[in-house]
Amino acid sequence: MKITNVEVLVLKSPGLYNRPAGSEEPLGPTYMGLVRVSTDAGITGYSDMETSAPVAKAAVEAPSWSEPGNECFEGLASLIVGENPLEPERLWYKMYRGSIYYGRRGVAIQAISAIDIALWDIMGKFYGQPVCVLLGAKWRDRVRAYASTLFRATPEAMREAARRYLDQGFTAIKFGWGVFGEDAGRDVRLVEAARTEIGDGIDLLIDTGWFVERTPKQAIQVVRSLEPYRPFFIEEPLHPEDYDGYRRLAEAVETPIACGEQEATEWGFHDLITRAKVDILQPDLTRCGGFTVARKIVHIAERANVLVIPHSWSSDLLTAASLHLNAFQRRAVFIEFNTSQGPLSRELVNNPLRMQDGYLEVPTAPGLGVEVNQEVIEKYRIA
Ligand code: MG
After folding, report:
1. What CATH code would you report for 134-372?
2. If you measure from the C-alpha of residue 111 to the centroid of ligand 1, how many angstroms do you get, rounded to a whole number?
3. What is the pLDDT of residues 280-292, one digit of tens each?
4. Would you say domain 3-129 falls under CATH 3.30.70.360?
């Protein structure tokens, strides 16, 4: 079997990304890049990708641009067309090495991530096994889900939103950024409202976001102000590259500190563990380097006694991929479940993932175990 084509399809939702003003849901992504890897065996692999899709499209589809023997500026597809898709680790490094001058992080690693996921999808379909089994372990059939949504602007809207997730059966809820950080007093009232509504038995997760750029001392104050409401974790209170700030914060507070959705490669996550000393890593499969990197992150995290709770906010494709990563790790805690109802979140696959009794089932069909809906792709495709 050989890879015959690697494409990036650019999708656009008719709804615009919003920050909810009341208790309504966010609409989810406006734009999405979808990687499609084709083979001469008729097996096709897919992954979405949370990045600038037009830039990723250029990086993937650019021509070969180096002297032979000195591959540093290559279009990613040119590096792997003709190769065996059953060797994702070798192809990962070939893409990383072959784009090294313009790549390493950012859009190049995000495109490599999506291609890598698509290769694992192909591998699963070829061997007739779900990705988690190919990774080496299916420790569980289902993973506890947390509802992942944005902060609402008033305590009443927070309570209404929290109530709705409880009614849907969630046993854990994360509220993220949005209005958080604009007013420290209101921030506390919003979190207090959520905790009051959900009671003691439900986990409450807080993503403060880092767009409000804090010093480590300010972040310590934010975390301490929320500790009375017993957050399961507090996510990204600092700039993603403030490794030393994270260490000061993590050492100063009891609450587990989570970060890593912006991080990439095994080297980056090694720094989060050893230098930033955070409690929870949140690799996003479509940004960290795909399964090939994420399985290494799981291994180094297990040894370091750090939890891995994958970041996963775009579509059912990514949620399915993240379920496989969770099935593979011994200490899985949560699957992040994006509650937005936008079409790119909810319509991309034929059999949308459903939360039941607070859990999502790990897909059992070969590969990622979800089937991309071709009509939906054509409906929203703009490039
Ligand atoms: Mg986040």
Report:
1. 3.20.20.120
2. 20
3. 999 999 999 999 9
4. no
